[in-house]
Structure formats: structure tokens, C-alpha cells
Model the fold of this input.
Amino acid sequence: MSVLVFLDIDDVLCVHPTLNTQNVLAALSAGETANAEEVWQQVFHAVARENLRQLHKEFLPHYVISSSWVLHLNREQLCDTFRLTGMAFVAENLHEYWSTPRDVNGDSYRLVEIENWLDTHALGTPVPFIVIDDVISGQSLVGSHLEDQCVLCNVCTGFMFGQLAQARSILQAQLTSVSHTRG
Done:
């Protein structure tokens, strides 16, 4: 059974205090410069990347990007970024509908974005999913009906081992529930 991960980027993978989407755009357009090499090596936290890789190895999810990065980078640019940072597994497993709908002004609430995506693309075929976000941009998820599927990362630390363990637990419980329902 396919699993979904709604993935935020800032404060989940990208916790560097100065590297951001603007640096990524510059590195993508500049090619092989020293600055581009620094971006590819440092924009995503090494431990957060490895923890997401471990989750991927276990559950083989499809990814839906739920991040302000989609306001600045298109699908191809995001895929290039994931590949250049050692996260080709995300690029290769982006869902067909790869991002949550965002307000073009950037005023979206994560809860609304994910609800809209699920209402549009998962009706009639519920799938196990988790939301990996941070405590600030994921604030609208706290106390909502999606809270039990959320893994919220601390700002400036990202997707650490505690969040990986929580994500595993949430997905395993959903997969167990689905197999009992079908069996």
C-alpha cells in the first residue's frame, strides 16, 4: 500500500541560518561555482536528510511538498535540488500531484492546504499519511483532526531521531489498522 508524506522544507530539512530558497535558485542558475557547491553541501541538515532516508527505506512513500518553497521553485527545480543534495529518493518519488495548493500571496495555512489536497486527490482511496512540518508553519495543524498524523520539528533543529521515531509509529499504526480492516 502506498504511503504519503506531506513534507515541509524550512525547519524540517533546511535549518541553516542563512541558506534558503534564494540561495538554491542562485546555485541552480550559476552552475558549478564554489558557492553552488556550498549550497548543495549545507542547505539541508545531514542528520535530517539521513532520517528522512531511513523513513523512506522503511515505508517507500510518495512525497507531496507542503512548503513555501513551491512559490519559488517549480517541480523540476525542486527535483534538481533534491538530487544535488543527496536526496534523489524524494525527487524520484514525488506524487503526481507533487505539491499542496498554496495561496499565491503566501498566506496559506498548512491545515487548509493539506485538507484541500486530500479532498482533491485522495477521496475514495484513503491512504496512510504523515505530515512532517515544523512547529511554526504547522501551527494550524495543532488541535486539528490531522494532529495525530503530524510530526512537528523544532525550528532550527529539523527532522531529528525523535521525529523519525514518531513518524515510524504513526505510519505503522495506520498500516496495521488498514491491514486489519481489509483482512
